[in-house]
Amino acid sequence: MITKTNLEALLYKTRSRRIAPEKDLCLLFQNGVTLKSENKFELNLLDSDKIFHLQDIKRICIDYRLRFLDAQLFKGSFPVEAVTKLKKLESEHQTDITDLKIIAPADVFRLKNADDPLLFANLGDDYYYLVHKWGNDLHPFRKLLMWPYKNFENLLFTIFLLSVLLTFLVPEGLLSKQQNVAYTFTTFLFMFKSVAAIVLFYGFAMGKNFNEVIWDSKYFNT
């Protein structure tokens, strides 16, 4: 049985791969550190295990084609557990938490025209505190399916592989009676240009863009 991808667990795993991530967390707890944010937290009251840097969040969003946007753009209602945890944080820190962000697929946001949410509170200086995770886990193959859209190099490599596959699927003798290297190469070029043309047409027509560009965009057609 194929298990779904738990986004929260994946976020912790991604952070652990960074070089000495604990050094970044320790900086937050040094005496005299002031983080520039609308949210006023007492750092010594926070669970350091739930503090993440923007680079960790960005990496997840790019790999899985997710958005990291203001909570006010979220379409649905917040679950009781999320509201309860948020109120508890406000009570502990004697503050109103207003600057909130969410990681989730684009379709759960109210985006402007031009599956698995994580709620974060902004600590300032590109650090975010994980408040609550809810919803269903991601499809187990989402990262693989979104890999071609990560950047231009990945898309080009995907077009190349697909063209090679289509070339070998062409029946022998369909286009020429002679089966040789020149024939195979010509067929590959034809397939490559055809696939590339379809991808480019779809990309321009739908206004699509790469994961590295859209991960924090509030616009729908990107």
Structure description:
- With 222 residues, this protein is of the alpha+beta class.
- The chain folds into two domains: 127 residues, no CATH class; 65 residues, no CATH class.
- The chain is 43% helix and 12% strand.
- Strands 1-5-4-3-2 form a five-stranded antiparallel sheet.
- Strand 4 and strand 5 form a beta hairpin.
- Helix 6 crosses helix 7.
- The longest helix is centred in the C-terminal third of the chain and has 26 residues.
- The protein starts with 6 loop residues before the first helix and ends in an 8-residue tail after the last helix.
What does the secondary structure layout of this molecule look like, with pairings?
Layout: H1 7-16, H2 21-28, E1 51-53, H3 54-64, E2 67-70, H4 80-93, E3 100-104, E4 118-124, E5 127-133, H5 142-146, H6 152-169, H7 181-206, H8 211-214
Antiparallel strand pairs: 1-5, 2-3, 3-4, 4-5
Helix pairs in contact: 1-3, 6-7
* Radius of gyration from CA coordinates: 23 Å
* Unreliable spans: none
Number of strands: 5
Largest sheet: 5 strands, antiparallel
* End-to-end CA span: 34 Å
